[in-house]
Specification:
Keywords: Coiled coil, Cytoplasm, mRNA transport, Nuclear pore complex, Nucleus, Protein transport, Translocation, Transport. The chain has 261 residues and is mostly helical. Strand 1 and strand 2 form a beta hairpin.
């Protein structure tokens, strides 16, 4: 907790125009007329890249990163706008939006629009792609439910849980994609299902039953035998949740005791 406060304070000091010591030199956003705009942009970009690198590899880190994002967003709304812009560009499914193949668009160009990365014109492995997309959705799912506990305003969340409810409803209004849809729904519900359950109660469970009864068969219809890994994990998660009438807090959730550490 104390470590996370140090990180937050350093970012806050930088954005508020105070000189900050980093890599052996003192920097300040006031050193250049566009300094603050540049730092807003790069910071939001960095937050998003932590989703696809850090959270993708260590799922439980989503909450520690998200609470800092949420706190900075509350104090500097511009950073929040840019965070969403970078997130949507890296992961169109976070809108949610499935880009359509337009006439005249090359295959590589289209795959980049879908969020795939390329190295030496070679597309990344599907597993790696799904891991990154899951990391980004998990970070977003953590951001919408957490508030920085030391904020002076402690008012409304800058981008609260209702955005998650809307995202979920919009996802279920779209035709599923092989691998991608099951992976993202599972990651999202594992991270913020508990918060949505408490907030929306009966409506939430209706949504979960709809996913099991109506939406899962639609995913199954487009999924071949060799691509069922993410779908099976998601199905198991839904079955257990409905059986216990409970979605547990995700691993890594920041309990009050964390802030005393």
């Amino acid at each position: 907790g104390t470590k996370l406060r140090e990180v937050f304070d350093k970012i806050n000091n930088l954005l508020s125009g105070k000189p900050v010591l980093t890599a052996g030199q003192t920097v300040s956003v006031t050193q250049h007329p566009q300094g603050l705009d540049f730092v807003y942009y790069k910071l939001a970009e960095k937050f998003v890249s932590q989703g696809e690198a850090e959270v993708a590899s260590h799922r439980e880190s989503a909450f520690a990163i998200a609470v800092v994002v949420s706190g900075i967003w509350e104090m500097y709304p511009r950073v929040g706008d840019l965070f969403l812009a970078h997130l949507h560009k890296k992961c169109p499914y976070s809108v949610p939006f499935y880009p359509a193949m337009k006439e005249g668009t090359s295959k590589e160009e289209y795959e980049r629009m879908l969020g795939y990365q390329f190295q030496d014109s070679k597309i990344e492995e599907q597993d790696h792609f799904l891991k990154r997309m899951s990391g980004l959705i998990r970070l977003y799912a953590a951001v919408i439910q957490l508030q920085w506990p030391y904020g002076s305003r402690q008012g409304m969340h800058p981008h609260g849980l209702h955005n998650g409810w809307r995202w979920l409803a919009q996802m279920l209004n779209m035709e599923p994609l092989v691998d991608v849809t099951a992976t993202l729904l599972f990651g999202f519900l594992e991270v913020c299902g508990n918060a949505l359950m408490k907030q929306y109660q009966v409506q939430f469970w209706k949504m979960i039953v709809f996913i099991r009864e109506d939406y899962i068969p639609r995913i199954e219809a487009i999924t071949s035998a060799g691509q069922r890994g993410s779908l099976m994990r998601f199905k198991q998660f839904l079955e257990e949740s409905l059986q216990k009438k409970e979605i547990p807090l995700a691993k890594g959730y920041l309990q009050p005791s964390f802030w005393r550490s």
